[in-house]
Write a structure and sequence with these properties.
Layout: H1 10-51, H2 58-77, H3 81-97, H4 99-106, H5 112-122, H6 128-142, H7 147-161, H8 166-173, E1 178-183, E2 189-194, H9 197-215, H10 235-249, E3 273-277, H11 278-282, E4 290-291, E5 295-296, H12 299-307, E6 313-317, E7 324-327, H13 335-344, E8 359-363, E9 378-382, H14 383-391, E10 395-398, E11 404-407, E12 413-416
Parallel strand pairs: 3-6
Antiparallel strand pairs: 1-2, 3-4, 4-5, 6-7, 8-9, 10-11, 11-12
Bound molecules: zinc ion.
Zinc ion binds at residues 347, 349, 352, 354, 381-382, 384-385.
């Protein structure tokens, strides 16, 4: 006997009906607001384009005007300015190249996520008529389908309308090949690589075959050596270990530097900054070690790095104040540079996380105008924000506690404080270890 269907309470039904109606209304309002935001982003980027029109250094001036405006909006919204700059470009694209999509968003027929699908795939079509045809078909579909369903449909339409063959598109797509890292939790990180599918699959195949060969080795109990240790690694772990080995110690097969660089490319060693609290270095604590001051790593790894490997840059910090006690003695550079890099931890533009090794040391008060080369007048700035400060009206002023007051061209003021909010004074005495 099947159970009788449950009887729902009428009041619960009423609550649910109201919630669904309110959610539909929220979705409609969000779509309208998003369309309004796109229009404002586009208005802002048009100012940047207008300011650099007909200038001899148009490309660079346009980029600087754009960065300055992106930073202005970023500080106002508490957004990363790179994110703002991307949104500015996308907004202009929507207004200029996808008018029907923007209209559908403003009329709340589709959502911002549908819009992203249409724009991301539609930009592949350079021909205006082809793009308009793509747009009208996909917008119509998006009005009645989920985001995933719309994406699948849009891919099929794109394939049909695309003027280029897959070979021609691959030649273009291959230009986007790159390698990047993402931090993970628990002291881990990911390395990503984007390249042609054949090459990536070949790399994976080679790692797999090498890993299988290692796992096929005879087990130690069948060997005579009493010191042999059984390799208990899973195949995933062996593949990862092999890849690390190849990248950290390998020599590229094609090396154009063999005549100019002693040892060629194979002689170049990895370089990262490890920040280790003194108690952790001494083995009395397991806390607080990090790479570049932002990716936590485990204490054993940190101590192993401290113990040897001259290519690692070492920064030992005070356990309580976080002040810098010692820096590497292997790669001598002016003490003040190392001090500023250790204090700043990352680029000092508000919201930017570029690590010090990717930063310039900037004189907050311009050196040419009498600014001293001292820790209280120097700070880490990545290339993007260094040029923002030197090429646009943005200004930066450092206070004695190391905080930096930024002032935007429109007069908005924002303060960036150093990562460790202690007074930074270099230790006069040598470190106790
Ligand atoms: Zn920066």
């Amino acid at each position: 006997m099947p159970d009788r269907p449950p009887v729902f309470d009428d009041r619960e039904d009423a609550v649910l009906t109201d919630a669904v109606a309110a959610l539909v209304e929220s979705e409609r309002a969000l779509a309208e607001l998003e369309a309004a935001r796109v229009v404002q982003f586009a208005a802002a980027i048009r100012v940047a384009l207008e300011r650099s029109r007909n200038r001899p250094r148009a490309v660079q001036e346009r980029e600087m005007a754009l960065r300055s405006i992106a930073a202005e909006i970023g500080v106002a919204l508490r957004w990363n300015d790179r994110t703002v700059q991307r949104r500015l470009g996308e907004a202009l694209q929507l207004v200029d190249d996808f008018p029907a999509t923007l209209r559908a968003l403003a009329e709340a027929r589709i959502s911002a996520r549908h819009v992203a699908v249409i724009r991301d795939l539609g930009v592949e079509l350079e021909d205006r008529a082809a793009r308009a045809s793509f747009e009208s078909r996909v917008v119509e579909r998006a009005a009645t389908d989920t985001v995933a369903g719309t994406r699948a449909f849009a891919r099929a339409v794109l394939e049909e309308l695309h003027p280029l063959s897959i070979s021609e598109r691959f030649a273009h797509a291959e230009q986007q090949r790159r390698v990047w890292i993402d931090d993970d939790v628990d002291g881990m990180a990911r390395l990503g690589v984007l390249d042609g599918a054949a090459k990536i699959r070949a790399m994976y195949d080679r790692l797999t075959r090498q890993a299988r060969a290692i796992r096929a080795l005879p087990r130690p109990e069948s060997m005579d050596d009493p010191d042999a240790v059984e390799d208990r690694r899973a195949i995933d772990q062996v593949r990862a270990d092999l890849l690390c080995d190849l990248v950290l110690t390998g020599q590229p097969a094609i090396d154009a530097t063999t005549d100019t660089l002693p040892g060629g490319l194979g002689a170049i060693r990895a370089h990262v900054s490890v920040v280790v609290p003194a108690l952790t270095a001494a083995g009395a604590s397991d806390r607080g070690a990090s790479i570049d001051g932002q990716s936590p790593i485990d204490a054993d790894t940190a101590r192993r790095l401290l113990a040897g490997a001259p290519a690692w840059e070492r920064v030992v910090t005070h356990p309580v104040t976080g002040a810098v006690l010692a820096v590497d003695r292997y790669r001598p550079s002016p003490a003040i540079q190392r001090f500023v890099r250790a204090r700043d931890v990352h680029c000092r533009f508000p919201g930017c996380r570029q690590p010090p090794r990717r930063c310039d040391l900037d004189h907050n008060h311009d050196h040419a105008r009498g600014g001293p080369t001292a820790a209280d007048n120097l700070s880490c700035l990545c290339t993007r924000h260094h040029t923002l400060k030197t090429e646009t009206p943005w200004t930066a002023r450092q206070r004695p506690d190391g905080s930096i007051q930024w002032t935007s061209p429109l007069g908005r003021s924002v303060t960036d404080r150093p990562e460790r909010s202690v007074a930074f004074a270099p230790e006069p005495d040598p470190p106790p270890f």
